Amino acid sequence: MNASLFANSLSALGASAADGLLPARLEEEIRRIYSRSPIYGRRFPLHNEALQWSCYRDIPALSKREIVERGHQSFFSDYREVERGLADRRFEYENTSGTTAAPMTVIMEDGWWAAQTRRAYRASPILREFADRPYRKCVLAPVGCSSNLCPYEDHPFPHRYFDGTVYLNLSSDPFVFSEAEWDRILVEIQATRPEILEGEPVYLSLLARAALRRGVGVPSVRAVILTYGKASLQHGRRIAEAFPAPQVDLYGSTEAGYLFVGEAFRDDSRAIDENAFIELAPWRPGLPGVHQIYVTTRGREAMPLLRYHTGDIVWAMPAGFRMLGRERDLYFRPDGTLVSASDVDAALPADFACWHYVLVQTAESRWDFHYVADRPAHHGSIDRALSGFLGAGARVNAFRRKAIAPAASGKFAILKPLAQG
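-> structure tokens emitted (421 positions)
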């Protein structure tokens, strides 16, 4: 292993004192994490000599399941410090389901989320202009978003305007919005006149439908941020019809923060160097450039993560990275070739349009394609296009739906294959 197997720039990692040694900034962060969180020293003690790459390899990866099983309190020498920090608002906490059966509690220092968001903006040519000046933003987020303000069903509009940001979702069933709720949301957006519109791609697509039906435009919007979930090209196109502004793909998680940013659907995402060190590990034989990612957070005081396995897969492209999605949401054809949500987008007929879809595998060679659209598509063309794309005798049946529910975690998937060994 060497510094080239990181998504970060070499300048972010820092220079090595000699061949075989870790770059300076990476070693400094590792030792800082060990000094702050006792969980790491208990798992794998470190020597005092300069760290070599072989030492780094020996540090065991941290998983979401391990955090849940050990408990967030294992990151602290004295948990009373956290209780005092929560009481005087030096710390805050969030619960995230992730891929684990039980919820994960994340302790974060006050101001951490805002600071790493600014760093993410600085790393984006589209968002950079907003990083260090006041701006207005509207957020249509899932229930489990990283904010103490969303959703608050009992807070009227002025009380949800916080540091220039309005959180729009007040529904405990966030994928089901009544027409009256869309009216309220659009009135609040028009009143706010946001420069940035941010949200889960499915929600923003449905927001675009509501805006187009009502003839509502929001000319103040200068950037749209797709985050919280994997975006389909169908989402991007529908959102652009109502909100014609550059779209940004901002990838991260509640526990690790923002990790990659790029222009949506351009395969140019880059690591946010100031937020984390992102290790690229080969995923499977025969897939050059396709990597698992392991994250080491930077500058965290509460719950810093070291070699944290996120469960996400990225593909190194000529201009940057393509976020392929969760390991469990990727499919391998019988011939061993990989299928991701981006590939499904490319396989759909050129004249097909919808607000949302999911391709679900129901048996070894059977798939159902559910989509939300105002008019029925020609199912025969969808069936043929996707069957031929999936190959090996695959059969696809298309169904138009009024709504597609998320998983129990509140997250949506575009591609849902059966569990593969």
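The chain has twelve helices and 20 strands.
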